[in-house]
Design brief:
Elements: E1 2-7, H1 12-20, E2 23-28, H2 42-45, E3 47-49, E4 52-56, H3 57-62, H4 64-73, E5 77-81, E6 98-100, E7 103-106, H5 113-121, E8 125-128, H6 134-137, E9 138-140, E10 145-148, H7 151-159, E11 163-166, E12 172-173, E13 186-189, E14 192-195, H8 205-214, E15 218-221, E16 227-228, E17 234-236, H9 245-268
Parallel strand pairs: 1-2, 4-5, 7-8, 10-11, 12-16, 14-15
Antiparallel strand pairs: 1-17, 3-4, 6-7, 9-10, 13-14
């Protein structure tokens, strides 16, 4: 089964859409060491490079159920580092790195050395950027295209031969900050761009959807709202040898039961679903 890793605060509507599309959905719990608004953002908690997931020993201890599920559901390898998060920059972004094709874009003096080493072992070219949050600010579209509102990132990407679509800042929600970023509002997997919200509601909708189409991808809106920055959706596939249909069915049933339970609790307390 395909696996999607999402922020624990992701709306149920988005999780339900992913389940209907055949994904097993895992919610990332928050790290106590990160700023609260970003504490459960997957792109702050971990980094997937090729088939390897990199995260901190502290977070693995905090999120044992998540990592146990990932170990059972996916073909990912794991690199666990002693590097620790902090609640201020640059210690909050030690796993915030961007891959486009076989290139790793990161702020090399703040990212965890384990990220760079994993990339090196897999034949990635590491490209230094001044932006400490490249995975937040850039939405990669396959191996040769990307969307961003960050002009500095756009220049670096273009120097690497990547076709960049530059959009305006704003139009993406990330409370309590003024706005969020396009990289944190979507995830790309198997020919589709899964948006946390409706890109049609963004002021640069034509640019965003045009870039997706030129890249040969299809846009999928998971929730009927303006775009939400929830730290990206990370995806992982499962090897055929590891496939366990009964276990996959149980994960899906558990998720559906949890969603129904939360909706019932909301109804009991007079809350909107």
């Amino acid at each position: 089964m395909k696996t999607a890793i999402i922020d624990i605060r992701t709306p149920n509507e988005a999780e339900r859409a992913l389940l209907k599309l055949g994904f097993s959905v895992l919610r990332a719990p928050p790290s106590k060491k990160l700023p609260a608004p970003l504490a459960s953002h997957p792109d702050m908690l971990m980094c997937i490079i090729g088939k390897t997931l990199v995260s901190s020993a502290d977070y693995v201890d905090e999120a044992l159920t998540l990592f146990d599920d990932l170990a059972h559901q996916t073909a990912l390898n794991f690199t666990v580092t002693a590097d620790e998060f902090g609640d201020v920059y640059p210690r909050d972004c030690i796993f915030n790195a961007l891959t486009v094709g076989k290139r790793l874009f990161c702020k090399t003096d703040s990212v965890s050395p384990s990220v760079i080493e994993v990339a090196r072992r897999q034949g990635f070219k590491t490209v230094h950027v001044n932006q400490g949050y490249p995975a937040c600010t850039v939405l990669p579209l396959g191996d040769g295209a990307a969307i961003t509102a960050d002009k500095g990132m756009a220049r670096v990407l273009e120097r690497e031969g990547i076709d960049v679509t530059l959009i305006e800042n704003g139009g993406i929600s990330l409370p309590p900050y003024e706005y969020g970023f396009i990289g944190g509002a979507a995830g790309v997997f198997d020919g589709r761009v899964y948006f946390l919200g409706d890109p049609e509601k963004h002021a640069c909708a034509d640019l965003i959807l045009g870039a997706v189409e030129r890249a040969g991808l299809r846009a999928v809106s998971l929730i009927d709202s303006p775009l939400l920055d929830l730290g990206r959706i990370l995806f992982a596939d499962q090897s055929v040898d590891d496939h366990d249909g009964a276990r996959d069915q149980q994960y899906s049933e558990n998720a559906e039961q949890r969603i129904r339970s939360e909706k019932q609790n909301e109804a009991d307390y007079g809350m909107e679903p």
